[in-house]
Q: What sequence folds into this?
């Protein structure tokens, strides 16, 4: 009760100082918010691209139907494989005419179908990694009636490299800005502690427990962090609306990310004020 | 109650503040701690309050030993020892009542009991009509009374006072001394640091310790047998 009252009173006693510290926290968390928004949309884009990762097993023209059925079954038995589709020479030609109309007449006039029959292998989500696609392609290439098995090796590697860079950047930059936010809260709390050094001195003098002395400051830090996180969410949402309306379509981050952001703001506030008060309790 | 055994305190830059000081203040005693500025009076009080640890020797306060107490348990000693300063150290911007209530609140007093107890303490020190006055509206003597009420809030066993009349005029000093005598008469030990020998002379029944350059050079209780009567306090106190 005392802790909550004192924590709220701190906002009343020094509204400029606490408001400023919340604003500074909000700015730092806003950067984290923007980065989260960008990361989330990058993840969505990468996931959409990842959906298209599949292996195409090209079959020789003389492959017998029983051999094709056998391979179809073999590939379908892999736990990483979601679906195997057979595409006959005729199907391949129709698709080519559909997708490449400029070549349509050429195919019709020549009377020859140069396209091979194939098996298209779709993978389960979570298994569309370079290792898995490479292993399944190698398995298919073992069969003598298989001409080749391709999966766009280069761009799959690049896609996954891009994903790794995205995750690493999120971790490093998010961590760096979180650290900045923690330092700002810590500094604001140090100022608050200095402003209330007389009270802390009296509390120590008369035998208040250390945990009792700490509690209002921890709560104040948590509230400042939470207020900053709320403000940062609002600023990030404003930016999202602006980008969505005037630049290009992007997705808003999931509710769970917002909840984590708010909790992280409060936790960071409490943690950094805890560090600040631990040191300053020795000094006052 | 309070026992110092061969206590030495040395600061890295200032050197020795106390050297091999031993004394025993018994329950309900009233004692003055005197000596020149820098003789070690405040250091002695700080060690008793366990705001500092002795470099050597042991300080025992109501059963707690400086050798064994942990940082975590210091609050237990602080609640048994009231402390009053020359400069009062009240919280500015708060009323007399709020200053006393603050102490009760931060030391786990039930919410309902805080206001009545704070009022009673202020009445005890003669400030009932001024409980709603802000600190800056009170005279020096009145501020010191608030500080004493604050020091009594946890019902301590002993009251330490560091030059409590140093900033007060003659009349306010007499009032504060009367208050200390009243508090002592109810069974609480009082140890008051002062360099004012005239003040000590006016209280001939009180015990007197004198420090000189960090050493205990006079204890009125053992003076007859152990100490030469050549210290400033001993000479002046014995001159009448």
A:
């Amino acid at each position: 009760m005392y802790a909550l009252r004192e924590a709220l009173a701190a906002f009343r006693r020094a509204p400029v100082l606490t408001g400023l510290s919340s604003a500074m926290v909000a700015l730092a968390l806003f950067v984290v918010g923007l980065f989260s928004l960008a990361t989330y949309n990058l993840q969505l884009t990468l996931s959409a691209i990842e959906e298209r990762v599949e292996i195409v097993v090209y079959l020789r023209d003389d492959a017998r139907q029983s051999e094709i059925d056998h391979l179809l079954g073999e590939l379908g038995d892999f736990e990483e494989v979601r679906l195997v589709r057979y595409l006959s020479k005729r199907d391949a030609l129709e698709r080519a005419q559909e997708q490449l109309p400029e070549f349509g007449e050429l195919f019709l006039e020549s009377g020859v179908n140069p396209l091979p029959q194939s098996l298209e292998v779709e993978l389960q989500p979570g298994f569309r990694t370079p290792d898995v696609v490479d292993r399944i392609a190698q398995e298919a290439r073992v069969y003598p009636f298989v001409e080749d098995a391709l999966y766009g090796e280069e761009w799959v590697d690049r896609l996954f490299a891009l994903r790794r860079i995205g995750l690493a950047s999120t971790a490093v930059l998010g961590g760096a800005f979180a650290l900045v936010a923690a330092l700002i809260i810590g500094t604001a709390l140090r100022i608050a502690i200095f402003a209330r050094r007389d009270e802390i001195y009296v509390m120590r003098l008369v035998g208040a427990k250390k945990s009792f002395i700490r509690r209002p400051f921890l709560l104040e830090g948590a509230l400042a962090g939470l207020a900053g996180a709320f403000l940062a969410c609002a600023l990030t949402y404003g930016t999202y609306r602006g980008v969505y309306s005037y630049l290009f379509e992007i997705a808003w981050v999931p509710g769970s990310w917002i909840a984590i952001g708010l909790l992280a703001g409060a936790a960071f506030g409490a943690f950094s004020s805890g560090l600040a008060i631990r040191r300053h309790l020795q000094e006052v | 109650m309070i026992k110092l055994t061969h206590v030495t305190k040395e600061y890295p830059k200032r050197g020795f503040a106390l050297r091999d000081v031993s004394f025993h203040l018994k329950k309900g005693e009233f004692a003055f701690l005197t000596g020149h500025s820098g003789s070690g009076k405040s250091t002695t009080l700080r060690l008793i309050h366990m705001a500092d640890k002795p470099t050597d020797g042991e300080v025992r306060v109501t059963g707690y030993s400086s050798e064994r107490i942990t940082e975590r348990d210091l609050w237990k000693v602080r609640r048994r020892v009231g402390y009053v300063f020359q400069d009062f150290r009240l919280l500015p911007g708060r009323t007399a009542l709020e200053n006393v209530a603050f102490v009760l609140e931060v030391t786990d007093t039930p919410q309902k009991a805080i206001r009545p107890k704070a009022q009673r303490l202020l009445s005890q020190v003669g400030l009932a009509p001024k409980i709603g006055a802000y600190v800056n509206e009170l005279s020096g003597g009145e501020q010191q009374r608030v500080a004493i009420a604050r020091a009594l809030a946890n019902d301590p066993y002993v009251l330490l006072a560091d030059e409590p009349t140093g900033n007060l005029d003659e009349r306010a000093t007499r009032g504060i001394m009367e208050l200390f005598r009243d508090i002592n008469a109810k069974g609480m030990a009082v140890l008051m640091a002062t360099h004012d020998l005239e003040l000590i002379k006016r209280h001939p029944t009180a015990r007197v310790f004198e420090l000189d350059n960090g050493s205990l050079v006079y204890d009125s209780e053992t003076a007859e047998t152990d100490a030469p009567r050549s210290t400033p306090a001993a000479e002046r106190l014995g001159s009448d």
Summary: Strands of chain A lie at 54-59, 81-87, 117-123, 146-150. The first strand of chain A starts at residue 54 and ends at 59. Chain A touches chain B through 16 residues (CB under 8 Å). Chain A has two domains: 2-48+159-283, 54-150.
